[in-house]
Structures are given as C-alpha cells and as structure tokens.
Amino acid sequence: MIDQVVNIAAVTVLGVLEQAYFSLQVIYARRKYSVSPPSTSGPPEFERVFRAQANCSEYFPIFITILWVTGLFFSQAIASLCGLLYLYGRLMYFQGYSESAHGRLAPLYFSAKVLWVMIGLSAVGVLNSMCQLYLGLDTLQYLSGLLVD
Amino acid sequence: MIDQVVNIAAVTVLGVLEQAYFSLQVIYARRKYSVSPPSTSGPPEFERVFRAQANCSEYFPIFITILWVTGLFFSQAIASLCGLLYLYGRLMYFQGYSESAHGRLAPLYFSAKVLWVMIGLSAVGVLNSMCQLYLGLDTLQYLSGLLVD
Amino acid sequence: MIDQVVNIAAVTVLGVLEQAYFSLQVIYARRKYSVSPPSTSGPPEFERVFRAQANCSEYFPIFITILWVTGLFFSQAIASLCGLLYLYGRLMYFQGYSESAHGRLAPLYFSAKVLWVMIGLSAVGVLNSMCQLYLGLDTLQYLSGLLVD
C-alpha cells in the first residue's frame, strides 16, 4: 500500500513546503509595506502578494485531493509528474503575480491546464474502477490491450 | 481497498468539478462587473458571487476530510449519499447567494445539517473502531445485532 | 489498515469540530457587530475574529494533509500527539486574536513550530520509504538500531 503512494506523498510534502514559502512571503510583504493584521488592504504591491498566496491556498486542497485520487485510481507515476508540473506552475504564478497583475496570467493558465488534465485522469480512473467493480469490465486494460495488439 | 473507497472517490471528483464551476462563475462575474484582480471589492452582485465561492472553498477541505473519514470508518454507501446531498445543497447555496444575500440561507442551513450528520457519523465510526482496537468491543455490530433480534 | 490510521482519524474529527466552533464564532460576531454578508469589513473586534477564522481555515488543509502523511510514513502515535498540540495551539490563537492583534502572536508561533516539526517528520518518513523502495535501505530502522546498541 505504502509503495503505491510514496511518490504522491513526496509531491504532497513538496506542495506543503511551497505553501509555507508563499505564507512567509506574505509575512515579509506585510513588514515591507507596513500592513498590520487584521488589515488585508494596502498598496497594490502588497495586495498582489496577498491575493497570490490566497489563490494558491484556495486551490491547495483541490490539488491535493485530485493528486491522490489520480494516484490511487489512474497512475501514481503520471499523478506525481502532473503534481510536479502544477507546483512549478504555481511558483511561476506567485512570482509573476508579485511583479504585476498581468504576470500572473500565463502561469495561471498553465497550472489550470495541468489541474484539468489531472481532473480528467482521476475521473477516467474512478469510472474505470466502478466499471470493474459493478460491471466486471476493465476498460483501461482493454484499451491498452488494443494499443499493444 | 480500492473497492471500499471508489464511491467516495467518485463523489470527491464531483466535488472538485463543482468547485471548478464556482471558480469559473467568479471569473465571469469579474468580467461582467469589471472587477480586475487583485481587487475583490465591487458591486454587491459581484461580491455575493465572490463570497459564495469563497465560502464553498473554505468548506471544501472540511467536506472532503469528513467524507473520507465517514466512508472509511462508518459506511461508504451512507458517506457517498450524504456527500451527494451536500454537493447539491452547495449548488443551491451558490445559485441562491448569487441572486440575493437572503437566498443563500435555506440551502446553507441544509448543507450545514448534512455536514453535521457526517461529522456525527464519522465520530461514531472512529469511536467504534477505537473501542474495537483498544477494548475489543464492536459496539456498532452489537447495536445492529440488537435491532435485528 | 484501519488500525494504522484510527488515531489520526480521531484527531481529524477533533480538528473538524474545532473548525466548526470557529465558524460559529464568526456567525456570532457578525450578529454582535451587525456585519451582514457579503461584507467582511467592520469594527476591528469583528475583523479580528473573521481573520482568525480565515487563517485557521487556510491552514486546515495543510494541517490535515501533513498529519496523515506523518501518520502513514513516520509514526501514528507521534503524528496524533503533534496533531493534538497543533489543535490546542490554534484554539489559543483564536482566543488570543479575538482579544487583540498582539494576543495572536505567541500561540501562532507555537502552532507554526508544531507544524514545522510535522513537516520535518513527514519528509523524513517519506524519504525513508523512498530509500527502502528504490535503494533497499531502511535508514530509520538502521538509525534506531544504532541507538539501541
């Protein structure tokens, strides 16, 4: 069991470290632009860093959830690879958004595309497991059999 | 193992798709009411959509966590059913809140009730597993035995 | 399998109950200070309660994720203990922040330290499992062997 999830667990720990890094950046921005809690309004430079972190935090549970469902029901290797790409996209997004509102767009579209791929793969994996369990059909194995023949 | 979680995994993927739908609605509302990031203030029509999505996002990790604990420790079938009801309640909440602040209340209470039921069932399931493991008692099986007799 | 996660599942349910308690406090604060949704601005007393809950909600998925990875890959007992300490720290944080912006600091640092310990332990556990799987080395068992000799 542990063997089947160790790589997605590693990507998960990396994702948590990335979120910790984003949180620290907000703390530094609060000091730099003198925005004391509980206020979250300030100069645009501060608000961009704050919103970048808020957006990444909002997507973090969705990402972790879909990473594990893809890893368990589709393929651990592909889930881990997509996970690394997503985390890279989020790092680019955070750095881009910190510089300008426009700079967030390209990496945001990239990480959204990776997330959609993972959502698609997890849906395929779960549907395949349901077909196997309730109808006795292994659609994915049948399709990969067709490719090999 | 996979058989014991495939239905809750399916509800999980549905939940992620619902969150994706809410996020898209915020993007459309930003365009419609010309509220550019990083700003999150605007006309009440925009703020309602924004807050509806923020509230659903905030509850998403709690929902997913409790869905899986209920599924693993109480019953996969009941967890999946409650999960579907919760997701339906959240859809009604989002649509109601988009129309008026008052429109959010009835579905909010409904989805909160479903969540409380799941929290209760997960607590019962986990306590039962702890009794089984540490005291050697299977309370749930004993109680259902009483009902059958 | 269930035996290996029942304690972290119990901490998880406690964590969900704590989040529910925080959410109820925001509802009471909205009534007390007459801040109707979708607005999130009001007197500092309200904004502190609102931000305290928002901060706890933001860290909740990170906490749950790292609790389970630590429990699965390092030690269930240590993960559960750290989890209880973290939840205690968050309760102190919420109560401190509700009283004053300064009151949040000591428990915030405490819960951040506990979270860093869990992140460290989960990283050690996952790396150890990867060494075992890909290199055939059980580093943790080797180290604990050295301590015993």
TrEMBL record, chains A, B, C:
- InterPro entries recorded for this chain? FLAP/GST2/LTC4S_CS (IPR018295), MAPEG (IPR050997), MAPEG-like_dom_sf (IPR023352), Membr-assoc_MAPEG (IPR001129)
Q: How does it sit in the membrane?
A: Multi-pass membrane protein
- Membrane-crossing ranges are 6-24, 59-88, 108-127
Example GO biological process term?
A: leukotriene biosynthetic process
Q: Which UniProt keywords apply?
A: Leukotriene biosynthesis, Membrane, Nucleus, Transmembrane, Transmembrane helix
User: Keyword Nucleus, does the record have it?
Assistant: yes
Q: Cite the Gene3D superfamilies for this sequence.
A: Membrane associated eicosanoid/glutathione metabolism-like domain
PANTHER family named in the record:
LEUKOTRIENE C4 SYNTHASE, MICROSOMAL GLUTATHIONE S-TRANSFERASE
Per the record, the similarity remark reads: Belongs to the MAPEG family.
The name on file for this protein is: Leukotriene C4 synthase
Species annotation:
Albula goreensis
